[in-house]
């Protein structure tokens, strides 16, 4: 049922988003790896979810922070896109089990490794949860760099901005896997995996969006 809803809403979302912004999907993939896949991206706006969904020819189950469900609109958006929430303040066993189930069934997860929208609109330190999941399941990861969605809010600041349509780019990278590990991933394995994931995302963003992952930024791995 969710697959039907997901696919049926795609054309309407595509049209609605054209009124909000001028978006393009750069390096859009016609073919992605079969089987389990994790889509990772930086996070600037709640509109990142439908924009990424329109650019990937698979149904994505997005993992959203639990706070999203405080808003009925955001709750419906996550639900329509087959997603579920995670409690960022603790080890959420229920969310982890759900993520593993989706991957075990050959599905596609959507994760924002920063854990929340960036208030500075620059890439923040990534959390190790994404690497933990990817290492446990040895799955392909598809990195995405999205920029411009943070400007959409200006459209609603004044009646004179009603026709304002900022340019948004969804830059899609190449699928990759993290290095193999032997046995249970160690803390160091997770940290190294997170660094790789975040660097892959940063490569798809303009320098001004790369934040702590800029080439000249002070950054602890």
Any overview of this molecule?
This protein has one domain (2-213): 3-Layer(aba) Sandwich (Glycerol-3-phosphate (1)-acyltransferase), CATH 3.40.1130.10. Helix 1 (2-20) packs across helix 2 (48-55) and helix 5 crosses helix 6 (187-202). A 7-stranded mixed beta sheet has the order 1-7-6-2-5-3-4, with helices on both faces. The mean pLDDT is 86. With 221 residues, the chain is an alpha/beta fold. The protein has helices spanning 2-20, 48-55, 72-80, 93-104, 129-137, 187-202, and strands spanning 22-26, 37-41, 60-65, 84-86, 108-111, 140-147, 167-172. It is globular.
What layout of secondary structure does this protein have?
Elements: H1 2-20, E1 22-26, E2 37-41, H2 48-55, E3 60-65, H3 72-80, E4 84-86, H4 93-104, E5 108-111, H5 129-137, E6 140-147, E7 167-172, H6 187-202
Parallel strand pairs: 1-7, 2-5, 2-6, 3-4, 3-5
Antiparallel strand pairs: 6-7
Helix pairs in contact: 1-2, 5-6
CATH class: Alpha Beta
Q: In CATH terms, what is the fold-level topology?
A: Glycerol-3-phosphate (1)-acyltransferase
SS summary, helix count: 6
Structural class: alpha/beta
Share of helix, binned: 25-40%
CATH superfamily: Glycerol-3-phosphate (1)-acyltransferase
Strand order, main sheet: write it out: 1-7-6-2-5-3-4
Number of strands: 7
Q: Give the CATH architecture.
A: 3-Layer(aba) Sandwich
Give the end-to-end Cα distance, rounded to a whole number of Å: 42 Å
Overall tally of domains: 1
Mean pLDDT: 86
Q: What is the string of helix and strand elements?
A: HEEHEHEHEHEEH
- Rg over alpha carbons: 17 Å
Low-confidence stretches: none
Largest sheet composition: 7 strands, mixed
Q: Which band does the percent of strand residues land in?
A: 15-25%
Shape: globular
């Amino acid at each position: 049922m969710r697959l039907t809803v997901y696919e049926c809403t795609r054309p309407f979302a595509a049209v609605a988003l054209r009124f909000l912004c001028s978006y393009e999907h750069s390096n859009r993939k016609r073919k992605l790896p079969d089987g389990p896949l994790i889509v990772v991206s930086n996070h600037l706006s709640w509109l990142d979810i439908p924009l990424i969904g329109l650019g990937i020819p698979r149904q994505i189950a997005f993992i959203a922070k639990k706070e999203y469900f405080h808003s009925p609109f955001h709750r419906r958006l996550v639900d329509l896109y087959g997603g579920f929430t995670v409690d960022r303040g603790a080890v959420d066993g229920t969310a982890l089990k759900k993520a593993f189930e989706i991957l075990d069934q050959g599905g596609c997860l959507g994760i924002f490794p920063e854990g929340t929208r960036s208030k500075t609109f620059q890439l923040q330190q990534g959390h190790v949860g994404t690497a933990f999941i990817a290492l446990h399941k040895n799955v392909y990861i598809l990195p995405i760099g999205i920029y411009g969605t943070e400007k959409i809010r200006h459209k609603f600041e004044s009646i004179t901005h009603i026709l304002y349509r900022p340019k948004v780019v969804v830059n899609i990278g190449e699928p990759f896997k993290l290095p193999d590990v032997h046995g249970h991933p160690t803390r160091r394995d997770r940290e190294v995996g997170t660094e790789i994931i975040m660097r892959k995302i940063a490569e798809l963003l303009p320098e001004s969006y790369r934040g702590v992952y800029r080439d000249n930024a002070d950054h602890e791995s």
